[in-house]
Design brief:
128 residues; five-stranded mixed β-sheet; single chain; 30% strand; Transcription Regulator spoIIAA; alpha/beta
Amino acid sequence: MSLNISVKQQAKNAWVISLTGSLNTETAPAFGERLQPLLNNPGGTLALDMAGLEYISSAGLREVFKAQKAQKAVNGKLVFMGLQPQIRKVFEIVNALPSMRIFSSLQEMDDYLDSMQKQVTHPGDPND
């Protein structure tokens, strides 16, 4: 099965990467290449929308973890949303979920990003 990758800029420093299909040995290199230009953006957030992802292999996990490491190096975030049960199970098996931020929807992610940005622009404001 193939992998369709759609990238949409959500805010100045945030992108949603929607994945549909299978992230495996054949498709992982293209996924890594597609993410590369987005990774070295200090403080940026990448959201992987996995609602359409049906399968992930160890090669796919490797690319996800490489992206997570790259984001951490520039104080950025890699977050997840819409994990199918079988994809969530894979992340649980490798004990990755507790360290990852997962959202149920784009709206929940937008609310979180809005809150994080307000903490930076209005530090200490109790209304944020």
